[in-house]
Structures
1.
Amino acid sequence: MKYPARILLLFVLCCRLSAYGQSPWPAAKAAAWYQQQGWLLGANFIPSTAVNQLEMWQAATFDTAAIDRELGYAAATGFNIMRVYLHHVAWQQDREGFKQRVGQYLGIASRHHIRTMFVFFDDCWRDSYQPGPQPAPVPGVHNSGWLKDPGGLIDRDTTLMDTLRVYVQDIIRTFKQDQRVAIWDLYNEPGHFKHGAKSWPLLKNVVAWTRAEAPEQPVTIGIWNKEFTDFNQYQLEQSDIITFHNYRDSASMQEAIDTLRRYNRPVICTEYMKRPNNSTFTTHLPMMKKAGVGAINWGLVAGKTQTNYPQGNKGGEPEPAIWYHDIFRADGTPFDATETAFIREIAAQ
C-alpha cells in the first residue's frame, strides 16, 4: 500500500521526536506515582567513613559494613528513602565495577526497606578532585572534602561534556527499571558557588540525556534559591516532581510549600534541618506531613564530612553543643534521643 508523501513525512518526524525520549510527565501521572509511595521520609546519606563521594564509591574505600550499619539506624528511625550523590570520576575509573557497587548499595538499602534518590551533578564545595586516596578531613571543618561534579573542569576540558553524556546514559540505562531507585535528581544547586550562567549547558544537557533514556522513575532538579528565577523556571518545567531546599525557619518553609504546591505536582523537600536556624524535625516535619510534602534532611551519621559542625567555620573548635546537621554518632547513639523518638512517632502515624 502506498501512503501520501505528507503521511510518510509525519511518520518520520514522529520517529525522530520519539528518539529524543520522553517529555516531562503529565501532572496526573506524577500524582498517581506519588500516591503509591506513601510519605517519603529520609536523609541525605554518605557513610561516616567517607569524606566525599569518591571515597564512598571507589572500590578501595567502598564500605559495605558501614553502609549496612548506618542504613539500619535510618530504618529503625522510620526513614524510607535516602538521597545519595554519585560522582563521574568513580565511574570513569571503573565503569562496570562502579555500577556493581551501585547495585550493592541498592541491595543493602532494599534490605532495610529504603529506596534511593540518586544525584548526578553538584556545583557545591571543592572544585578540584582526582581519583585514588582522598584527603583526610580538616579537623572540625564542615564538609572540608566534599566535591563538585564536574566543577570548573568542564570549562577547561572540551571532551568532558561527551564523557558526562556517556556516564549519565550508562547509569540510567542500567537502573532505569530498577524499583529500588525512587527518583533521579539530575543536578544539585546549579549555579551555586559562583558558577552562575556557566551551569546552563550541563543543566540542559543532563535533562536531554536523561529524557533520551526514558527512565521509569521520575526526574527532578531541585529549587534552592528563589532569586535564581531563570534557573527555577527551567527546573520546574523539566521536573516530573518538584523538589526544593530550605534551611530556614518554619515560616519560610511554609511559604515555600504554599508556593510550590500551586504547580499541582508532588513536592519533596530534599534538604532541610539546620538546628541553629530553627529548622528542626519538631518544627518542620508536622507541617510537611500535613501538606503531604516529602522530607529529606541533610545528614544521617556524623563522620568524615563533619556536617554536624557549622558551615563556614575555620576548624579547631570543639564539637558544637547544638549540631548543625546529622542525627547519629557513628556508634548509633543519637545526638538527641527525644528528637529521634519524635521522628519515629511521626513516621508511624
2.
Amino acid sequence: METKEFDTYSERKAFDETKEGVKGLVDAHITEIPRIFRLPQGTLSDKKPYVSASDPAIPVIDFADVHVSREHTVEKIKDAAGNWGFFQVINHGVPLTVLEDIQEGVRRFFEQDPEVKKAYFTRDAAKTFVYNSNFDLYGSSLCVGWRDSFACYMAPDPPNPEELPVVCRDAMIEHTKHIKSLGVLLFELLSEALGLSSDKLKSMDCMKGFHMICHYYPPCPQPDLTIGTNNHSDNSFLTVLLQDQVGGLQIHHQDHWVDVTPIPGALVINIGDFLQEKLIDLFLFLINL
C-alpha cells in the first residue's frame, strides 16, 4: 500500500490557522503529538550529557558581593563570560514578587479564553504585541517546538499600556522597570571586566532596546518525541532569563550539554551574539589605534 507523503507545510499552516497554538492541542486532549512536532530520528544523537556527580555547573554569582568587593565580582563575571558565556545571578535586586508576578502573568495570558487570546495572534513582527506559536514555524527544517510565545519591545519606545493584554499588563511594565535597572549594572560590570570604563558598553547603545519574549510550555503527552526549543544562540546583546522550577534549560559547553538547574529567584545571564560582535569590533579598533 502506498503511503501518502507527509506535507509538512500544509500541516504547519493548518496548525497555525487555529490561532490556538500548542495550548489548543493540549485543550483538545490529544494523546499523540502531530507529526510536525516530532524530532527526526537520530537528531539529538550528538548530545553528550554529563553523567557524573562531579560534573561542572554554570557559575552562580552573588550580586550582594558587589557592595562588598566590586573587583571580586567583576573577576567572577570575567571568568564566567569568557569560559561559559552564561552565568546565574542571585541577590540581584529584582524583588521575588516581581519575578513571581511576571511568571503568573504569562501563565494567565496563555491559559485565558482562546477567543480573547486570538485577538493578539499575528505573524507580523512589526506589531506592538506579538502572540503566536514558533516565530520560525515555516522556516524551521527540524521540527515545530512544543511552545507558544508572545513578544513585545518595551524600549526604547515603550508601548501604550492599553496595547498590552490586561491579564499581564502590570506585570510586564513592572518587570521591565527592574530588569532595565539590573541591565545597567550588568553592562557596567561587563565593561569593567573588559578593562574599560563602566559606561563603555552603555555608550555603544548595547542597552538601548529591551525585547521581552515569554514562552509557555504546556504538558506534552509524548515529551520524548519532541523538544520545547531547538538549540540556538541569542541574537541579542544580553539575555536576562527567568526560568521556572520545572527546569529543562541546557547550555552547550565544551562539547557537552549542561543542565541549568533552577535556583529560586535566580536569573540566567546569556552573552548574546551582538555583544560578542561588538566586542570584536571594539578590540579591532583598539588594535588599530
3.
Amino acid sequence: MKLKFSLTFLLAVVASFAFFAFAPKADVYTVDVTKSTITWEGKKFSGSHAGFVNLTSGTLGFNGKKLTQGGFIANMTTIKTMDGGTKPNAGLDKHLKADDFFGVEKFPAANFVIKKVSGNGANVNVTGDLTIKGVTQSVTFPASVVWGADNTVTATAEKITIDRTKFGVKYKSKSLFADLGDNFIYDEFTIGVKLVAKK
C-alpha cells in the first residue's frame, strides 16, 4: 500500500513538472513609447476638455499571435490639455496635477496590468487592473491587435471609460455633491490607448 502511494505521488510530481516545463512561454514585445499614445477626454455640463499623457514604459505578451499579458505605465506628471488638438490650457493642467484631481506629486505614475484576454483574431476584450492615485480597480474594454509587416504589433483601445470617483477623484462630482447645480464635472472620463510594440 505504501509502495502504491509512493508511486502515485511520484507520477503526480513528474506530471506537474512536465506541465510547467512544456507550458508555452509568452513572447514579450516592448512598447515603443515614442510611437505610442495615451489620450483622454473629460466632460462637464458646459463643455469638455481633452489631452494626452506620456507613456513611461509598457510590454505586450503573446502566445503565437494571441495577446495573453502585458501592461503599461503612464507618467501622470506629463498631463497635458490640448483642446481641439491645438489649444493648450496650462491652468487646467496645473489643476489636474493637484490633489483635487490626480495628485501627481504623491502619485506620479498610473499603471495598467492585463489579467484576462478573451476573443480571437484582431478584436478582443481585455480585462485588467488599473491603478490611479494608489487605488486599483478592474476595468474591461474592447481592443484591436494588428500585426505589421515590419514585425511590430499595434494594440489599440479607442475608448476606455473610467469612473474617476472610484479612484478618489471627487472634485465637483454631481453624484457626491448635490448642491453643484450646473457647475459639475461628469464622473466618467475616457482614455484612448495605442501601444506599438516590437520584440
